[in-house]
């Protein structure tokens, strides 16, 4: 048993994550120094790359959008006491749903195809999460193990489908044909142009607003609704849930479906918002970053917004940085991400004891 | 004056805005048994945790054997000869007694050697204090009383001179409690100092030399046990006159609410946990189920509340057969809808979610209630209002609906659960251990509420290991032993001795 902390709430919620982040950046800085670059300059380049000019901001927010969805997905399962590592696979399958709708129906107008594609992404994502959820609830197979396995299955399945079935006829790259323009979700710069505002061309699209809406709805559902109440009771105390007459297995399965549907929406941002076709690598680790986003954001929508923004900035700023500094490779950016996960997740309470002591000293005086 | 083992001066402890210990000063004589009593939330456990190094005092000083000390953690405490027997035992179930005791105190590199040395040492301790613990028994297979003795042995093995026991008898049967007190007297005879927290005044009068009374974080009295009586202590604790005698108007029996016939429950290993149990319960009546814990009472409550399926037999409730009831929702929810409320025996693990705010726990099990929905969302205001009403009606302290339930003392948690279940206006109320670990003032209050429920024509089934409680509340008493009903008698004719015999399965 660890000593209960005497830290004020704001310190646990705000100060500790910031300190953790700072520590992660410090260690990254050390590594950058070791490979002979100037960490301060790198940080400046990165911040500038992410927020310094309109185009950078657009890209940052585009990445943020996907991270919000996969972060919420992890949080949804977490509140039911489940650790869903399968966001990546669920997003992959959701991409299949989107693709099937678009390839089959993109001759229809946008207001028909796009809602259908959204629905398909959620249904396919939910279905891929349903199976591990069912196995956990009814058979006791551990969700962590099954969701990881399902990531592999998803990846194998999609490779086969793309290489053998969905590939554009006559093409050499494993990707589908371009979807018809009616299925494209409007870009932000297009929307702005309609209003007479000129924005640089970036993949940032209307899905961003959907993500913001999802954050609000998530809060209302989890903390303010009957459904969320059952979800959290099951997550925090299964015995009490049984005492209260809650259908525990059903709650677990539904929670996983909810989680999978959220992860699925990330596929919409990528496919209908940006690439407009499906290729093999479109998930690109976004599902996994969602785990870090949820951890850092303490599974709360507001925290998830901030940490998704952080990881979005890291992705965009990191890309810019590696253009400027060939010594800083993509792997370096992954390392930084890894360090942030390490400090904010695994070493979450690193600064708790020293902070508690510091507070005690201060209040004594 | 006798030598002092412990001396506290001006100890203060805050939890946020809660002042849990206010300027505490008191002394404990060496080689004495010192009782600490007080209402729920008075700060007893907090004070002992400070002594044991689990919490740090915000100010004040501690002297041990006349020397000022700082106790930073439980290692410090153990090194200075302070041992603690926790209410929730800190033992590894799959280890033997010996392994548990050596755990964390291994001497030398070779575990085997240290085990042999420990075995000898243990045999000596066992002999000196009459603990009668088999060093090779698997802890998980021991009863609660024996596990507690293992905890005591563990503390002594680590060289404790001062032993702190936080509500040790809350989980014990009367016989086990007597055994414990015999051991404590032996410890005292050997010069050890014992600090005993309890809510049972009879125990305090029986065994302690001196008593410290706490109320709302402060010490309100230090008395020599021989000079006081039960009422004095109760009044001192609560700060007003306490009526220990419950008014019991004659019961006015209504129709039969519950009819249990030939109920049996067999577990996966084929052990009969319930064996052919039959009884009736009427409106306007309290039936008490007496018995040493673990004789089927818990299972009976679980079946009647819909949390477990019976293997055979029937349960009729207001004319409906419950065992074969077809429901879409889990049975526990369906039963509740039919007017069966349930205060579970294990309140902190079943009756509420510790990490929830109190207002969230105020609706646990009743979260379907249309009165608290507003469209797709909860009507948060209505929930908070309901919780505030519970808090004021049941005098929950501190009166804060947003405070996490786990931060409330046990008695105050229990009040919230009772308030919630009584408020549902049930036809049948199932109650397990309503006053376990609850202070005297609150017991008086809870008993009055239960009696009022009965006088209002409700049927109450009360399971308790406290014979006093069973005798005070019940109209009829059913005694259980080894899963069977070993006797049924009107409360007016029952005596503690007779019940004791039935509980043991004699007669
Ligand atoms: N870790 C904690 N954080 C915040 N408040 C706490 C904590 N522990 C105890 N308290 C509060 O301090 C007060 C004293 O609690 P304590 O557990 O010492 O009471 P107690 O006398 O042991 O009560 P009981 O008889 O119910 O066990 C209570 O108001 C309680 O809610
Ligand atoms: Mg206590």
UniProtKB/TrEMBL annotation, chain A:
Q: Keywords for this entry?
A: Cell membrane, Membrane, Transmembrane, Transmembrane helix
TM annotation in the entry: 12-36, 56-78, 90-108, 114-131, 143-163, 204-222, 243-266, 278-295, 302-319, 339-359
Which Pfam families has this protein been placed in?
Answer: BPD_transp_2 (PF02653)
Q: How does it sit in the membrane?
A: Multi-pass membrane protein
Task: Give yes or no: UniProt keyword Cell membrane.
Answer: yes
Q: Where in the cell is it found?
A: Cell membrane
Q: Which PANTHER family match?
A: ABC TRANSPORTER, PERMEASE PROTEIN (PTHR47089), GUANOSINE ABC TRANSPORTER PERMEASE PROTEIN NUPP (PTHR47089:SF1)
For this entry, the protein name equals ABC transporter permease
Automatic annotation (TrEMBL), chain B:
Q: Which UniProt keywords apply?
A: ATP-binding, Cell membrane, Membrane, Nucleotide-binding, Repeat, Sugar transport, Transport
Which Gene3D superfamilies has this protein been placed in? Answer: P-loop containing nucleotide triphosphate hydrolases (3.40.50.300)
Question: Is this entry keyworded Cell membrane?
Answer: yes
The UniProt record lists the keyword Cell membrane: yes
Q: What is this protein called?
A: Heme ABC transporter ATP-binding protein
Which ranges carry the ABC transporter domain? 6-241, 258-507
In its UniProt entry, the species of origin is given as Vogesella alkaliphila
GO molecular function terms attached to this record: ATP binding
